[in-house]
Amino acid sequence: MGLIVQKFGGSSVRDRDRIFNVARIVANTHKAGNDVVVVVSAQGDTTDDLIAKAAEITHDPSSREMDQLLASGEQISIALLSMALNSIGCHAVSLTGWQAGFQTDRKYSKARIRRVDTERIQSELERNRVVVVAGFQGLNKLDDITTLGRGGSDTSAVAIAAALKADRCQIYTDVEGVYTADPRKVPSARKLDEITFDEMLELATLGAQVLNNRSVELAKKYNVELEVLSSLNPVPGTVVKEVTNDMEGMLIKGVAKDADVSVITVMDVPNVPGSSFKMFSLLAQRNINVDIILQSTGRNGNKDVTFTCAQGDAELACRVLKEQGRYDNLVADNSCAKVSIVGAGMQSHSGVASSMFEALSNNHINIHMISTSEIKISVIIEEKDADLAVRAIHDMLVHNV
Amino acid sequence: MGLIVQKFGGSSVRDRDRIFNVARIVANTHKAGNDVVVVVSAQGDTTDDLIAKAAEITHDPSSREMDQLLASGEQISIALLSMALNSIGCHAVSLTGWQAGFQTDRKYSKARIRRVDTERIQSELERNRVVVVAGFQGLNKLDDITTLGRGGSDTSAVAIAAALKADRCQIYTDVEGVYTADPRKVPSARKLDEITFDEMLELATLGAQVLNNRSVELAKKYNVELEVLSSLNPVPGTVVKEVTNDMEGMLIKGVAKDADVSVITVMDVPNVPGSSFKMFSLLAQRNINVDIILQSTGRNGNKDVTFTCAQGDAELACRVLKEQGRYDNLVADNSCAKVSIVGAGMQSHSGVASSMFEALSNNHINIHMISTSEIKISVIIEEKDADLAVRAIHDMLVHNV
Predict the structure, then answer these.
(1) Is residue B161 located within the same domain as residue B12?
(2) Cβ contacts (< 8 Å) between A17 and chain B: which residues?
(3) Could you list the residue range(s) of the whole structural domain that residue B318 is in?
(4) Nearby residues of B280 by Cβ (< 8 Å), 6 or more positions away
(5) Residue A8 CB neighbours (<10 A)
């Protein structure tokens, strides 16, 4: 009755049994009267195996050849899934990224989709076939194969859904949906029925790792309704959309922890206009993403600037600043973590922040930094306290509400 | 100084060491001042592994999806070889079959090349890059990936050489060239410096298994000089060309055995015009290739017709003929083999046939059928006698000349 895009990740197609499991989900969706486009990743460890093959040859492969190599992974999985679908009586045809019309920019290994020419997909749908598309890959203007980088298959699925104006884009994973906290760490965590794009973006950025950020941005931009659900357990998942129906008056949608945080403090920065700008433009030139920034008055009328970045960028950040001469009194701390609460209704309700701080205080957890936006509050605390903090905040603001 | 196409089979690129061995051969050819196009097959067992993956899914995969699946094999090997070439300082770029411009007909799994659009290859050569092309594959008019079937990479190499008017097409294998007989069976067998296309075609058909027949036919059609040589042992191989320089006056170029022979005798065929034609047109309709045909007068004024075909076709051939009603008195014999001598100079020299028969007679080997063409003589004998026959004929007509 509609047009549905379904995306399955590598673990969902890792072997024969999983492939047939996916085939049954797809065939049932098709049998129910829907047009179905399926986007799949490479099987299980295929991508890692291919990377290992390349590493045997050279430690510095050209990114063009890496893309040529890696794209073979999805070519295998689309062919196998199409065979499985055909064998259970559901007519299917597989299309590689370039056959499906994915046009990208030139950046090998992290290409951006420019557009999807859907002619071929549409003509196959008109013939009542399920179309099985290779995620993660496209073609640039040179007619070279490109790959989309991390989480690329999610992005492929949303891009197709947008181009085809699909009724829904279902992202099948090995979890049942988006949770209010990591269910492995917080026993009282519960699955959300709905979440807004903005909330999902904050949660994805904060390390909830359910959906890739680029795919959520794209879904928001083209208003593609997403559903995150399990390929193994056939229960309703979490719907991600522009405006949610908060019947329960749930203010907080999730509590997330991000342990990949380095806190860098630069002391004795001259207190003159432009000194912070110069510092952060130096970091930006080296593609270092800075997250939270705090500035305080230091000694001698100078100021102290503290910021956070990913731990992998910390060493480079310190080197870049030291080389400059003016910012050599600095210290980096990798023992911290960021804990955040996200919820679109937060801003219009007072007391959310104070409840969060109360939960931390009750558990004797010290707060190093605080950062707030319209729909989230983040604190930087010691990493050793982070799991306890998540549980305490979750129990106070989500579970017991 | 020229343009050279080099083709390497799956065993030549089966692992890291072999890939670098190939890379060194290619880089040296390029360093010597040549433009080089390399055609490679899938690594070692990759194709078999992919076939096994498909067999886990279904025993009747669509040939379109099989081609989509199998083509990933060469995509892996071209990327790895290009990485290896780049890592030793030889600039290379990999192209899949469709990127290299291979256009084929629609027959999945055994497509025929229609033409090669060499624009992309030529523009890469102009940039002084070695071009590494995926053999065995192309694109049909539907923009679907096709594969060329058995020996397809040889055919790809010759087709590129023809389209680019290359100076030479080198086919690297794990043998050093074309031998006068199978060196594993005939100790006195020697490597030929040169052989004509026609001789090579007869030898290939007869089971010498060095070069695929389609590639030799194509090379003859477009007069592409071929060289068969070893990727492991850097000695001159065998050149295949239109006219050879027979300084030694060598009449016989090779003695070959083909054990895949079924001899089918149909008795009591009505001796009226057109009865043989009807019989063989029935077989042709079922794509059964008939090799030697003999006809003799049988009983009651009827005739007996004997023919040979591949053993895999024998059962179908018998069934087709029996179904027809008129040809139900028949018998198939799979215990035979065909032994042949090939040489372009044979026809102008008397005594070749009688020497062959003498060699067989000396060894008490009975001849069931005889067939001759301008450049070959074949006999059908008991398979158990075949190796002895090859040695005896080789010693009399090749080794002791």
Answers:
(1) yes
(2) none
(3) 255-399
(4) B290, B293, B307
(5) 28
* Chain A CA closest to residue B49: A76
- Cβ under 8 Å to A: B residues 243-302: none
Residue B223 is assigned to a structural domain of this protein: no
Q: What is the rounded CA–CA span in Å between residue A168 and residue A28?
A: 16
For B83, which of A58, A80, A143 is closest by C-beta distance?
A58
Length of chain A: 401
The position carrying tokens 């692992």 is B15
Query: Could you identify the residue written with the tokens 């558990």?
Result: A363
Q: What is the ipTM of this complex?
A: 0.84
Question: What is the tally of structural domains in chain B?
Answer: 2
Within 8 A of A84 by CB-CB distance, chain B residues are 57-58
Contact (CB, 8 A) for A216 and A197: yes
Instruction: Specify the CATH number for the domain of residue B133.
Output: 3.40.1160.10
Mutation choice for A interface testing from B53, B118, B131, B140 by most A CBs within 10 A: B53
* Listed residues A109, A139, A174: the one ending a domain: A174
Q: Are A16 and A164 part of one and the same domain?
A: yes
Q: Residue B87 — φ and ψ, nearest 5°? A: -70, -20
Is the whole model's pTM more than 0.90, yes or no?
Answer: no
* CB spacing of B62 vs A82 below 8 angstroms: yes
Among B residues 97-156, those touching chain A with beta carbons less than 8 Å apart = 99, 120, 143-145
Q: How many angstroms separate the CA atoms of A244 and A264, rounded?
A: 38
Let me know if residue A196 belongs to a domain.
no
Q: Report the C-alpha gap between B363 and A200 in whole angstroms.
A: 86
Residues from chain B contacting residue A120 (CB–CB below 8 Å): 143
The 10s digit of each residue's pLDDT in A187-220 is 899 899 999 999 998 887 766 677 888 899 999 9
B301 within a domain of the structure (yes/no): yes
For residue range B156-213, list pLDDT tens digits in order. 999 999 999 999 999 999 888 999 998 888 989 989 999 999 999 888 776 667 788 8
A130 and A9 within one domain: yes
Tell me if B210 is assigned to some domain: no
- Rounded-to-integer distance, Cα A58 and Cα A100, Å: 31
Cα distances (angstroms) measured from residue B308 to each of B125, B209, B267, B317: 48, 20, 15, 10
Number of inter-chain CB pairs under 8 A, A vs B: 106
How crowded is residue A187: how many other Cβ atoms within 10 Å of its Cβ? 11
Which SS3 state, helix, strand or coil, does residue A188 take?
Answer: coil
How far does chain B reach from its first CA to its final CA, in angstroms?
Answer: 39
Domain endpoint, select from A145, A174, A203: A174
Q: Shortest Cα distance from B41 to chain A (angstroms)?
A: 14
